[in-house]
Amino acid sequence: MPRERAAAEPVFRPEWPIVDAHHHLWDGHLRGSGLAVEVAVYEAEDFLADIAAAGHRVIASVAVESFAHYGAHGPVGETMHADAAARAHPGICNAIVGWADMRGGDALIRLLDAHQAASPRLRGIRHSAAWDADPAVTFATLAAYSGRDMMADPAFIAGVRHMGERGLVFETFITHAQLGEAARLAQAAPDTAIVIDHVGMPLSLGGYGARPQAVRATWESGMAALAQCPNVHIKLGGLTMPTTLPGSEANTRTSDGACAAISPWMNPVIALFGPDRCLFESNFPVEKRDCDYRTLWNALKKIAAGHGDDAARAMLADNALRLYGIARPS
C-alpha cells in the first residue's frame, strides 16, 4: 500500500526547468511480477497528470524501457509506443531509451537498426545487468537477461562498444555490488557514454539489510572506481524504493524527510563525478508508491540547490538535454 501523504507543500524553486531523465510508460505487464508498485498501468496521460498536479516546470523527459508495450513488434514496440506518446504530447518522451541484449552480435545490430527506424527520438539502449548471488535478492523481470559477471562477457563488451560507434548511450540498472564490474566495462568501452541508473542501487534486500555499513563501503569503492571513467554518468534518483537505503527508510511524506534520507547518498556522488556528469530522475511510476511527484522533485531540487544555481540547473536539465541530444524547448 502507498504510504500516507502529508499535506501538499509549496513548490520549491518553481522557475527551475526540469528534464525528467528517467520515467516509464506501463501497460499492466508487471501484474504478478512481485514488484511493489502503486499502479500497474501508467501511460503518457497519467504522467502528464502527475506533472500538472506537481506544479514543477518539466520541459522534457526521457522515456526508459521496462519491457512494456511489446505487442507484435517485441522491444521495438515499446520504442514505437513512446514515439507515439511524444508525437501526441510534445514535451514528454523527447528522448527514448529502448532495450536490446548487448550479447546479441548480428541480432543486436538488426534490432538497433529497427529501433532507430521506429523513432528519430531513440537515443540509447538499456540492458540492465542487475544480479546477485543471494537468492533473496531477485529481479524477476531481468532474470533472463542478467547473470554473474555478465558485463565481463566479451560479447557484452562488444555490444557496448558498438553503441558508441552508433552514437547511442548505453544505460544499465545494476546493484552496488556490481559497480566495480561496471567500471571495468567502462574502461573497455571508453568511446561509449554509459549511464548508471539509480545512484548505483545500494540494496537493503536479503542479507544486505543487516549489513548497511558493508553495503556503504562497497558502494563507495565502486563509485570511486566509476568516477575515474570520464564516459560514465550517474542518474540521481530511485532511492525512495523499499529495496534501497540500507539501514534506514526514507520518510517520503515531506521533501525535507526524503532529502534527509537520500542526500547522504547523492551528495558524495556529485562530489566524485562533478555536477556535469549527474542527472536527476523521477523513476516514475516506480517511486509513485512512496513519494508523489511534487514532493520528490522538491527533495531533488533541494539537494541540487546545495551545489549552487549553475550546478543545479545542469543536473536538473542541461546535462540530460546534452547527453540525450534533446533540443532545448523554446
Please state the average pLDDT score: 92
CATH top-level class: Alpha Beta
Task: Identify the strand order in the major beta sheet.
Answer: 1-4-5-6-7-8-9-10
Largest sheet: 8 strands, parallel
Number of helices: 9
Shape: globular
How many domains make up the 3D coordinates? 1
CATH topology description: TIM Barrel
**Radius of gyration, whole Å:** 18 Å
Would you list the SSEs in sequence order as H and E? EEEHEHEHEHEHEHEHEHH
Low-confidence stretches: none
The end-to-end span amounts to: 40 Å
Question: Architecture in CATH?
Answer: Alpha-Beta Barrel
CATH superfamily (homologous) name: Metal-dependent hydrolases
Helical percentage? 25-40%
Beta-strand content bin: 5-15%
Protein architecture, described:
The chain is α/β, with parallel strands linked by helices and 330 residues long. The chain has one domain (17-323): Metal-dependent hydrolases (TIM Barrel, Alpha-Beta Barrel), CATH 3.20.20. 37% of the residues lie in helices and 13% in strands. The protein has an eight-stranded parallel sheet. Strands 2-3 form a two-stranded antiparallel sheet. Helix 2 runs parallel beside helix 3 (106-118) and helix 7 packs across helix 8 (293-305). The termini are far apart.
